[in-house]
Amino acid sequence: MLDTSPTFRQFTAPGQVGPRLRQELVTCWIEVTNAGGAAGFPFPPIGAADAAPAVDGIIGSLAPETSRLLTATAGGDVVGWLVVRRDPSPLVAHWGTLHHVQTRPSHQGQGLGTALVNEARTIARDEMGVEQLHIAVRGGAGLEAFYGRLGWRETGRRPGVLRLPAGDRDEVLMCLAPL
Q1: How sure is the predictor about 166, in pLDDT bands with cuts at 50, 70 and 90?
Q2: Confidence grade of residue 3 (pLDDT, cut at 50, 70, 90)
Q3: Amino acid 5: pLDDT
Q4: What are φ and ψ of residue 87, in 5° steps?
Q5: CA–CA separation, 109 and 122 (whole Å)
Q6: How far is CA 70 from CA 130, 153, 161, 162, 164, in A?
Q7: What is the mean pLDDT of residues 14-37?
Q8: Which strands make up the sheet holding 77-86, listed edge to edge?
């Protein structure tokens, strides 16, 4: 478990994310990816030239109804973050997706990922009106077990669709419902 409880903060508009937070998101993503994390960049190593444009895209798409950034801080530093998104179309507005779930390597194994995903669940349900969450994870990285312990269930698998240097991996589709 975490030595101290993380502080969660969500951001719902681009103007809420200042330069320091932007840089912390970039740094976290680089650390996670280069340690082998499955958070969106499949070919480490990466640097700021790779992560910064992706972070800028996330920040630019923030909107209260459709895209929220959730950060976890400890000791004043970002130690984990994720994005909750949903489509506003009435056909699918009842469900959302988690993207880029990550915890800094120095804070892994302390319950931070669990706390972050559970906080996202609460925000999605109570503030965004979402009834279920979906995520696509890289098979073979232990993520199915992690999410399974949190109540998520596998809803589909696309065998061998992820081409990685260590070999092809499945993309595993998971769902958490009800929230």
Answers
A1: confident
A2: low
A3: 86
A4: -90, 135
A5: 22
A6: 16, 23, 29, 26, 28
A7: 97
A8: 7-11, 67-74, 77-86, 95-103, 132-138, 167-176, 153-164
